[in-house]
Amino acid sequence: MQYLEGSKATLTLDNHHRDTLLAMAAEQTHWLGRMIMPLLASAFVTSLLALAKQYLMVFLPETKFPWWLLFVGAAVALGSTYAAGLHRRLRTPMSLRLGEFIGVMVVTYGFLRLGGWGGAEPFFSAVIWQERDILTSLLLVAAGWLLARGYGGTFALLGDIARDVGDQGAATFSWEAESLLSDYQVSRERARAVGYFARRLLFYAFLACFFRAIAFEGFAHRLGGLQGWEKKTNVATLVLLISGMLLQASVYLFRLQVIWEEVGIRVYGRLPRQWLWSSLVFVMIVLVVASSVPTVLSPLDFSGTMEAVGMWIGAGLQFSLPEQDMGSRSAYRPSTQIGPREGVEPSWWMALFYLLISFFWVILIVGTLLVGLGLLLFMFFSEEWERLHGLVRVPIYAYLWLRETLQTLIRFWRASLRRTRVLLKSLHIPKPEIASGTRQMARVSKTSAPSAPAMYIRHLFLLLIDTLGQHGMVPKPGETALEYLQALERKLDVAQDELRAFTEYYLRARYSKDTFSPEVRPVVKRLWQAVMESVGAWLDDAGLKAE
Amino acid sequence: MQSPAEERQEVDVLRVQSICQQIIDNVGRVIIGKSRSVELMLLALLSEGHVLIEDVPGVGKTILARAMALSLGCTFNRIQCTPDLLPSDVLGVSVFDPVEREFVFRPGPVMSQILLADEINRATPRTQSSLLECMAEGQVTVDGKTRLLPRPFAVIATQNPVEYEGTFPLPEAQLDRFFMRISLGYPTETEENEILMRLQYTHPITAIEACADPETFVDLQEAIRGIYVEDSVREYIVRLVAGTRRHSDVILGASPRGSLALFRAGQGLAAMRGRDYVIPDDIKHVAIPILGHRLILKPESRLRGKTPEHVVQELLHSITVGFEEL
């Protein structure tokens, strides 16, 4: 599979590729990878679609959905999960993937038209795209296709990583660490393939809770008119949680299975089944416990919990959202008029100002669109976006640039917070005179000459860099003493031998454990004087010496 | 009370320097104009480390390894790594002797003092990982029996950074076990001219003779451990390695094994240069070959064209060495 991943070949259905397809199908021998994980992913995506549909019914009450939409969504998600793995393994052309997407959309659209949506308009009519019902349904199916695609691609990676690093992973039983550490041209997403499912589950569970809170707090009056809304939403949420958790459990199981097969450990037939069964029981226990705690504390009742917390805080958690009545005019319409007012003398400055503002707005809007498009493309093509044509990559570059800029700003912000904290601490806590024993050893007196020969040599060196430092020649942050003295040697025309000898003495005094005899003292002093005279002459020549 | 390091006997650095210089000169008869690479390889072997040579084909990677083994007077074996190479082809295998009616162990090429694993990234991960134990512990375990490898023992592996088809990049766990990664690079025109002249009739490696023996070299390996490392130099090593872990372009920084490698290389280089103490410049000299292959960069940093060598270079420029403070 590594070979296939690295291959630049694209799919043409000749004999070779048919054989490859058959070989891949033969490799998918375990029922977890072949059936259970795609089904669970499909259930997860379908539950998300169901939740989206439920909340759209609240937020956009005029929108109508066909009853079969979820079935189509589930089928599309299942197909997309399987197809994503094939596309990734065979490195199919981008056009084929786009073709698949367009095919799915056309079929869904066909179903919608057959079901009576769109009235008497022709099949491919531009007016149809203004129909909110059709557009919303198509978008939901497209979202399902895209989400399932991510799962399918990750399943393919799971097997690949396990096969690539199987024996090492089995040896250490730290498969994630091995895959993260190994350099199989992996991105972070691939290396964290296992965590992918947990992160997705947590993110969508959070979204479900968030929209539930908004629906209850801001649109409670609409919920009354929707028969069975809460029941259906609860079922969809439960399916989301159960399928998400089972998916995570299956992924771990699949990982073990592949590693065991890779290293030739015999897998007892019933063991994976037992594991899956026990994880199902675990999930059920979690749900039962979550359901049995008092309503206001249940993790399944987000709005109730938040309300209770708000009450405890004291002021309560009450916020009102603006009424989103599509029929009436918005209460937030700006009353100000854009552009210069009538009767005001036109000014070039003002025109320039408007031009700049307009330019800024254009940049902002175009940039936002580019970034949005880049995000979509990045999600759509995942790690294979580098295969896109150069011009199509531009939005992705814009998106990556924005992401990186934001990350950098956040890093700066965190660093500044950290430094502020340190600064505040240093203002309050008196600094010790000597930070550590090591530093005490490293410090040499500049004012009085020490008696020990080694310290005396270091004292002379300190005086040298002090003199040079006063004329701007301070050591650079990463510069060593030797580099500093070598740089000085290049500048000085005379006394190079003395400087070299002095450097040797200094390095020994600073970094060795030698104890010098007292006779060294006058020798080093002579060398140092010669160097200082040379430095003085050089500073005179350069006109740098202080008056 | 003296610390164990202080209790050690004084190191005869002049002997170390003299022998090392002889070896470098000897190898220099075969490898022309690559004295830094030769010096680094010898330093790695002196520090009891393994070397990964990464370069394009035809620049003398294999010849360098052979010349080094010959100069040290060590036994030398070579494995040409291919995808069908098995761990037993490397470590050895027990075969049934019908005469004696018992299994007899046939040692593999790993049972040598210098092992050249040519194009190591063409072997499968399973075969690559079979080298882990011998690289880390100087022993191999086959059929449940552990056998010690001869001393000195070093693995010199080569890999070609250009080809990716049909290769299995070394996992980080294995890369970390290589003491340093070096590359030779193309020779200059003058050097290439010299190579052609010298190789006109015979290859100089046929005439190369040992200028040390394995026992002497093991003595040198043990002697350099007594080289003095002052506190601030040791702290510098630690800050440098910690810096790789905090760097914004890095997902995975260097391990403590990296710190130890820097420490040992500093000692070795000091001895090779005739000093019995390490200075920060020794550490700077070896930081890139030792730390470069231990770092994993973020994908976006790689996209921007950054390399681990850039990261180490940045750290060398930014981390203060801390000599005298004003």
Could you walk me through the main structural features you see in this protein, from its secondary elements to its overall organization?
The complex is a heterodimer of chains A (547) and B (326). Chain A is an all-alpha fold and 547 residues long. Chain A has helices at 2-6, 15-27, 31-59, 69-90, 94-114, 132-164, 166-172, 175-181, 188-191, 193-218, 220-223, 229-263, 271-292, 302-313, 348-381, 393-428, 437-442, 453-469, 481-491, 496-511, 520-542. Chain A starts with a helix and ends in a 5-residue tail after the last helix. The model of chain A is unreliable at 1-13, 165-191, 315-338 and 429-445 (pLDDT under 50). With 326 residues, chain B is α/β, with parallel strands linked by helices. Chain B has two domains: 4-226, Rossmann fold (3-Layer(aba) Sandwich), CATH 3.40.50; 227-326, Orthogonal Bundle (Helicase, Ruva Protein, domain 3), CATH 1.10.8. Helices cover 45% and strands 15% of the residues of chain B. Chain B has 14 helices and eleven strands. In chain B, helix 10 crosses helix 11. Chain B is globular. Chain B starts with a helix and ends in an 8-residue tail after the last helix.
Topology-level CATH name of the largest domain in chain B:
Rossmann fold
Mean pLDDT of chain B: 82
> How can the largest sheet of chain A be summarized?
none
Mean pLDDT of chain A: 72
Total count of helical runs of at least 4 residues of chain A: 21
* Number of spatially distinct domains of chain B: 2
Tell me the name of the CATH class of the largest domain in chain B: Alpha Beta
Order of strands across the biggest sheet of chain B? Answer: 2-5-8-1-9
What's the main sheet of chain B like?
5 strands, parallel
Which class do the helix and strand fractions of chain A yield?
Answer: mainly alpha
The number of strands of chain B is: 11
Shape of chain A: elongated
Tell me the helix content of chain A.
over 70%
Instruction: List low-confidence stretches of chain A.
Output: 1-13, 165-191, 315-338, 429-445
Measured by DSSP, the beta-strand proportion of chain A falls in under 5%
**Helix and strand string of chain B, N-terminal first?**
HHHEHEHEEEHEEEHEHHHEHHEHH
Distance N to C terminus of chain B:
32 Å
Please identify the oligomeric state: heterodimer
Low-confidence stretches of chain B: 1-8
Approximate helicity band of chain B: 40-55%
